[in-house]
Design goal:
Elements: E1 11-18, H1 22-39, E2 42-43, E3 51-59, H2 63-76, E4 80-90, E5 94-100, H3 103-115, E6 120-124, E7 129-134, H4 138-148, E8 154-159, E9 161-167, E10 175-181
Antiparallel strand pairs: 1-3, 1-9, 2-7, 3-6, 4-5, 4-8, 5-7, 9-10
Length: 189
Amino acid sequence: MKNIINTYDSLNDYRLIVDLPASVKRKIADIKVEFDADYKGLVIPGGDPFVYLASFAQTESKEDSVVDILNKIALGFMPFKMHLKNFGHIESGEIFIEVEEQAALKMLIGQIKDNLSYVQDARFNPHPRITLAKRLLPFQVSKSWKVYERKSFSATYIANEMLLLKRMEGFSSWQILRRMEFQNMLISV
């Protein structure tokens, strides 16, 4: 009689982001604290602002192939200038910082989408931005937007990498799985 061993292949969550320099994070953190004091919105947990690119789920056994594909995309992508300017809002209850000139980000998201069509629960960001507060009630949006549509914000930096975050099944916190540098190399994915 043969012993059959069943193995469990856990399903993990993954998120791709473009991180911000520490100086820009501090400026945004100050704005978030001020916003929360004035309007009591749901400030994004963890406090670290970032530009969300995509999220998906994948089994542990296929993680290495996903990482390889994403790393090849990053190696072939050129670092680009990110200019954050002023604020925007979405009627569904979100106030955010605008990313001006989104062509490079949308091209990056498009490459990711083209190469990760087989992953589970894939979501690709159609409007890259930095969320200050979300799930605001309609009166909070109208009251805060009257102030933030006149406020100015500006920050510029070079985006030279994307981060792949991982949340293992059964856990609530995200871990940095891989930093993937944009190196403008000739790579075929």
